[in-house]
Amino acid sequence: MIRWPNHTDAWRQWRDAIGSERMHHGWLLAGKSGLGKRDFAMAAARELVAQAGVPQPQGNHPDILVLTYGPKDDKAERAAADGKPFELARSIRIKQIRAMQKRLTTRPTLGARRVVIIDPADDMEKAAANALLKSLEEPPQGTFFLLVTHRPARLLPTIRSRCRTLRFPVLSDSQLAAMLEESGLPVDPAAIAAAEGSFGAALRFAEQDLAPLAREIETLLSGGEEGFALRGELARLIGPRADRDRMQAVFDLAQALTARAARNTDDAGRRAGLIDAYAALVALAAEAPTANYDPGMLPFEIGSLLVAAAPASEPAHG
Q1: Are 308 and 315 within 8 A, CB to CB?
Q2: Integer CA distances (angstroms), 256 to 144, 145, 156, 160, 161, in order
Q3: pLDDT score recorded for residue 317
C-alpha cells in the first residue's frame, strides 16, 4: 500500500463531511494524474459503506461500483469474458453509465450506502456525461459519487456544480524521493524533475526507462534541429508501435519538460513559444486516443511541436 503524504487535507475534509449531518452525494477528486486520487477514492468509499456490526469483504466490495475504461468492442468483450487479454476503449461509454444506473434501482447489498467511482470522469463520452448528470441531480438514497478527474475543466459545468471538490496537491521533490525509495526504485534526480510533483509520472519514468527520451526532448527544446534527424531519434526511442501507456508517459514527459523550460527562461518571446507548444501538446494528447493518427507519425508530430518552441527554430512542420 502506497502512503500518500499529499492526502492529509483531503482526508480531513472527507471525515469532517462523514461526521456532519448532511453528507454531500457528489465529489470531485481533482488534481494532476499520478497523485493517488484513485487510491483515495477506494479507501474513502470503504469508509463510507462500512456499517457497524456488518462484516466487510477484503477484496471487491458489492456496494462499491467502479467505472473505468471497458473493452473496446464486442470482440474485446468476448475476450474479457473468457479471461483473455483484450483491448481497452478510449473513453467511458454511455452503456456503462446505463448499466450502473440499473444497479442503482436495487438496494445496497451489505448496508445502507453505495458508492460509484468513475475514473477518469473527464474521459466520459458526452452522452455518458449527460446520462450521469441525471443521477447526480436525483441520486438514489444512500448513493454517493466519487469522480476522479485529472482535468476538471473537461467536465460539464452542470456536473461540476453538483459536486464538492477535493483538491490533491502535487508532491514535493523530497516526498517523491522518499516514495521512490520506499517502492524500491532508484532516486533519479531526472525522474523527479520530469515528474513535476506526480508520483505516477516518476514511476513511469523509472519503469519505462524514459531518461534517454528526456534528454532527447530537452535537446529538441533547447536548440531545434536541421532536417529530421533528432525527430527520427525521438521516434526510435518512443518505439514504432508504442502502446497507450507508453504514449501517455511520453506526453506527460514532454509537457512537464516544456512547462519547466517556460518557467526557467527570462526571454518573453521564448516563453510564449514554449507556452504555445505546451498547449499544443496537451491538445494532441487529448486528441490522439480517438483521432486517426498514424502511430508511426505521432512521435514526429510531438517532435515538431518541440522543435517549434526551440530558439531560432524552423517551422513546426519543416
Answers
A1: yes
A2: 34, 31, 26, 26, 30
A3: 47
What stretches in the chain show pLDDT beneath 50? 314-318
Residue 318: the pLDDT is: 46
Could you tell me what percentage of the chain is helix, strand and coil, using 3-state DSSP and rounding each to the nearest 5? 55, 10, 40
User: Which of 179, 55, 64 minimizes the C-alpha distance to 114?
Assistant: 64
Sheet with strand 64-67: strands edge to edge? 64-67, 114-118, 143-149, 26-30, 164-167
Please say whether the beta carbons of 128 and 156 come within 8 A.
no
Whole-model pTM over 0.90 = no
Q: What is the dihedral of CA 77, 82, 85, 89, to 10 degrees?
A: 10
Q: Are 214 and 190 within 8 A, CB to CB?
A: yes
The domains of the chain, with CATH numbers, are 5-167 (3.40.50.300), 208-308 (1.20.120)
